[in-house]
């Protein structure tokens, strides 16, 4: 049985299964899902707990297999946790997990909880993971994307009896909060809890949130592409400043931006050669959120624009490696900022503007 994290509470209210698997890269949500399972298990009399962390190829799986079959003199039910930080149990582990899955149904004395990182499609199709999925319940923990973060914050505030002001001011408050905690969900959770300590239940104004919430945002260089392609200049600026402050390598930031420009150029060339857009995107292995962004921005980009940006990316490549380029900043970060904004502005333009139509204006960025 497959569940998303939001479905877990209702599932546990209906009763426990003997095997659970939590997988995902968001530590806060994975921890909360595991805690909810443990709490429900303790309420059902599972009073003992053993934990096993799989580290390296020489892990002794016999201990895990034996744990489920042995009980102490003081308990008749136990929780056996198996953590696999790498997400790869190995050959012996694959066999052992399948054995655990086979004996899980009907085992009322042992609840097995397997905790994994985010898994790719090929791993989820493996025999050991399929055995876990077929014999028990798998809970996929998805990250909270930036667009969904304000609503997530509002829901967490509601849990502790607080809310932002209604209307436009409340939305501004939530957007400000999201900007301060983007990419750091655990810290976001802590900042929300701090508001409960500082202010009573009820309505929170913008000034209260502004005075209390620290800037704890952490930026992922690969999320920078989404902000640029989404036409979000303010967010792009924050991300570049944050990445620089965190010591991210200029070369990696440049690679991320230039790879997006090259991918846009390849898809555009394929379209010019007569391929439909969906086919061109599949050929370039572009899917998911990025596929939607490409579909939105490609009609806004002229061939000449992409050629100019490709040349600009080549010049910035030299700058971040210590070379000087005419009419470009000497600083690598300043050059990266110009390149990012060049692409960002092109992604904001109305398609009509590319045709030179009268009255064409720039589109508002999507936040």
What does this structure look like?
It is globular, with a radius of gyration of 25 Å. Strands 1-6-2-5-4-3 form a six-stranded parallel β-sheet, with helices on both faces. The chain has a two-stranded parallel sheet with strand order 7-8. It is of the alpha/beta class. It has three domains: 2-140, P-loop containing nucleotide triphosphate hydrolases (Rossmann fold, 3-Layer(aba) Sandwich), CATH 3.40.50.300; 146-212, Helicase, Ruva Protein, domain 3, CATH 1.10.8.60; 221-354, Up-down Bundle (Zinc Finger, Delta Prime, domain 3). It has 18 helices and eight strands. Helix 3 (61-67) runs parallel beside helix 4. The protein has helices at residues 8-13, 27-43, 61-67, 90-103, 121-124, 127-135, 149-159, 168-181, 185-198, 206-212, 224-229, 233-245, 250-272, 277-283, 288-297, 303-320, 332-348, 351-354, and strands at 2-4, 19-23, 48-53, 78-83, 110-116, 137-140, 162-164, 202-204.
Index terms:
367 residues, alpha/beta, Rossmann fold, Helicase, Ruva Protein, domain 3, Zinc Finger, Delta Prime, domain 3, 3 domains, 18 helices, disordered C terminus
Low-confidence stretches: 352-367
CATH architecture of the largest domain: 3-Layer(aba) Sandwich
Q: Main beta sheet: strand number and arrangement? A: 6 strands, parallel
Give the rounded overall mean pLDDT: 89
> What is the assigned CATH homologous superfamily of the largest domain?
P-loop containing nucleotide triphosphate hydrolases
CATH class of the largest domain: Alpha Beta
Task: List the helices and strands in order.
Answer: EHEHEHEHEHHEHEHHEHHHHHHHHH
